[in-house]
Amino acid sequence: MRSRHSVATRLVLAIGLGTTLVFALLLASIQWYARHMLEQDAVTDARNLIQSTSNQIAAILDDTTWVIEKAAVHLEEDQSGGTALHSLLRGILDNNPQIYGSAAAFQPAAGGGPSALYAPYAWRQGAEIAFRDLGQSYDYLQKDWYRLPADEGRARWSEPYFDAGGGDSPMTTYSVPFYRGRGEARQLAGIVTGDLELGWLARALSSVKILDTGYVFLLSREGRIIYHPVSGYAMQRIAPSAEESIFGPGLGQLADHMMKGETGFIAHTTPGGTKVRLYYGPVSSAGWSLGIVFPERELFRGANRLTFVAAVIGAIGILLIALVILVVSRTITQPLRDLAVAAARISGGDFSAVPPAGRARDEVGDLSRALIKMQNDLQQHIRELLKANSARERIASELGVARAIQRAMVPRVPQPFAGQGVVDLCAVMEPAKEVGGDFYDWFWLDERRLGLAMADVSGKGVPAALFMAMSRTLLKALAADEMDPALVLGKLNAQLAADNEQNMFVTLFYAVIDLQTRCMTWVNAGHNPPVLAPAQNEPRFLQGKRQLVIGAMQDYVYQNATTQLDPGDRLLLYTDGVTEAQNHWGGFYGEQRLLATLATLEDRSAAETTAAITTDVNQFAAGATQSDDITVMAVHLLAAPRERGG
To answer: Which residues are within 8 A (CB) of 514 and not within 5 positions of it... i.e. 6 or more apart?
Structure first.
């Protein structure tokens, strides 16, 4: 366990991993840059190769197009046939060795020409030149080399084809229409052609070297393979929409881009599983496209070799760095381990343990001296802590006594409550601390009048408890001599406001209920409004003039309010610890929830009502820390016959 969490191990891991990460990013950058540069070089080489091939092909094609177009002009101007026509065709072959054969195919009965199919054709037969009439062999009017330029009215190259039995070689034919007549009388007289043997092109492309195993291929504008290093593909036509082709799965659409004369550089996997980069672009006016295949393994060989060598060197460097860190860190961590042993003994209570290297002039020496000072301070702190614990226990004991005294100060409601058969009463109080600032009280003023009080002193703890005790004592003493609530609170306010250097105050609801007339006279000195639940209606807050809190202003004059109660009415007095109780999410219990809870307790006794409300408040808080005292008093007027009289 020590070896996995020691300082030396963490230094090696932290610095080693950091260095490895930086070096890995550097290697990735080198790899990316090298591959990018190699790609750019490959694109440049491919572009130059296509330009060179295009120039070479254009030279041959342009010579052929010039000769055949000149022959078409001659046939338009010179309408003599027979021997002169044969001489023209022979001259084309004699003077242009790249042309394999040439024909002059006439449109029947056009411009004074022959009325039947007539197409003299001259071709090379060994060292000689042979002639024959194509019109006697087949209907050349339906052949593409005749029909397409005739319909389009322009010269064009035919799709490459393999001339079996003739030149036994790939060929393409250049066809030029010629006309007779002028103006509206001008009409097609025929087509003059030149057959160009493409064997030279295959030989030229096969000599092109692309890395070790790369190659080139040539595609016609209609998707026919003019050249491919695999001879079995020659002269095959590719369906552009096919998903499977010689290009591999999913790249049948590549033929579309090449046939449209577009240029591109793409990553591709061949049918054999070889990853390659493929560059393609147009090479001639015939609409052909050249594809150049670079195997990725060969294209990026230099970049991969450079990355591998750099990775090996970096790994060796990282290992050396880790070894140096390990050796150096051990010379530093040994004194730290000795200090750890001494600290463990001290933490176990052996304060006689002496930390090592106390005279050293480095950080370890500073730590050792700090540990010695801590040892002395800890002994002193333990002595002081024992004294503080003793004092705290005395305070806790005294607070417990104060809590018991405070609980004894508020009246305990006997059950059943002796309310002369017309009133049921119960009250509960839960201080937020050992002692609190809330208090309630009830007392008989005479045989028919019952005094009720609910109060909340500002602040918490012992000061609030002392102020609460003084306020309750004065209130009860004043109420014994005065029946009028407003006068009682006026005198109480005057006495508490005098010499109130701590600026404390108390919110107080005080009411006197005549149990014969059920008329309640009350004053609300800044306290939460009580809830009145009439027997036949929904609970509501008892609204009235909310007057100044007790103890704030000495000469304040309070005013009474009266409320007529009926049998079955319920009155609920409470402090803000109920409505302002919070849960863990910061939500408040609130006044509306209090009304809703009280509405469900219509048939409950006063004791059951107070218990249900405090339980609901605690369930809402769900264990959250109680921030204020919770005090509730329920007063129920029983449904007994009303007595009349004094």
So the answer is: 448, 449, 520, 521
How far is CA 15 from its chain centroid?
Answer: 31
Type of residue numbered 246: I
Q: Under 8 Å CB-to-CB from 464, ≥6 apart: which residues?
A: 435, 436, 437, 457, 458, 504
DSSP annotation of 445 reads: S
What pLDDT is recorded for position 642? Answer: 41
Give every residue of the chain whose pLDDT is below 50, as ranges: 1-3, 243-244, 401, 641-646
| CATH class of the region 201-299 | alpha beta
| DSSP single-letter state for residue 185 | G
Selecting from 2.60.110.10, 3.30.460.20, 3.30.450.20, 1.25.40.340, what CATH number does the domain 78-197 have? 3.30.450.20
Q: Are 523 and 547 in contact (CB under 8 A)?
A: yes
Separation between Cα atoms, residue 551 and residue 208, nearest integer Å:
109
DSSP secondary structure of 194-262: EEEE-HHHHHHHHT--BTTTBEEEEE-TTSBEEE-SSGGGTT-B--TT-SSSTT-TT-TTHHHHHHTT-
Whole-number pLDDT of residue 646: 32
Are 19 and 321 a contacting pair, CB within 8 Å?
A: yes
Handedness of CA 38, 42, 47, 51 (dihedral sign): positive
Contacts of 155 (CB under 8 A, 6+ apart): 65, 68, 69, 72, 149, 174, 175, 176, 177
Q: Which residue has the tokens 């041959």?
A: 60
Q: What is the DSSP letter of 107?
A: P
Q: Which residues of 40-71 are buried (b: 16+ CB within 10 A; e: fewer)?
A: eebbeebeebbeebbebbeebbeebbebbbeb
- Give the largest Cα separation in the chain, rounded: 159
End-to-end CA distance of the chain: 90
* Helical (H) or strand (E) element with 630: strand 630-637
Q: Judge if 201-299 and 411-637 fold alike in CATH terms.
A: no
Could you list the beta-strand ranges (E) of 167-247. Answer: 170-180, 187-197, 215-219, 225-227
Q: Residue 223: which residues within 8 A CB-CB, separation 6 or more?
A: 237, 238, 239, 240, 255, 259
DSSP assignments along 593-604, one per residue: HHHHHHHTTTT-
CATH 3.60.40.10 fits 411-637, yes or no: yes
Q: Tokens in use for 583? A: 């849960």
The 3-state DSSP class for residue 508 equals strand
Cα separation, 635 vs 598, whole angstroms: 12
Q: For 337-364, give the DSSP string.
A: HHHHHHHHHHHTT-TT---S-TT-SSHH
Domains in the chain: boundaries = 78-197, 201-299, 354-409, 411-637
375 torsion bin: left (phi>0), alpha (psi -120 to 50), beta (else)? alpha
C-alpha to C-alpha distance for 234 and 246, rounded to whole angstroms? 11
Enclosing H/E stretch for 450: strand 449-457
- Residue whose entry in the numeric block shows the structure tokens 């609170």: 489
Tell the residue number behind the tokens 């591998």, with chain if given: 308
AA identity, residue 568: G
Helix (H, G, I), strand (E, B) or coil at 376: helix
Which DSSP helix (H) or strand (E) runs through 587? Answer: none
Name the phi and psi angles at 537, rounded to 5. -135, 170
Between CA 115 and CA 106 the distance in angstroms is 9
Q: Tell me the chain's radius of gyration from C-alpha atoms.
A: 56
Contacts 24+ apart (CB under 8 A), 36-39: 38/299, 38/300, 38/302, 38/303, 39/265, 39/277, 39/299
Contacts of 69 (CB under 8 A, 6+ apart): 155, 176
How far is the C-alpha of 330 from the C-alpha of 97, rounded, in Å? 87
Give residue for tokens 């010039």. Answer: 66
CB neighbours of residue 140 within 10 Å: 21
pLDDT at 40: 87
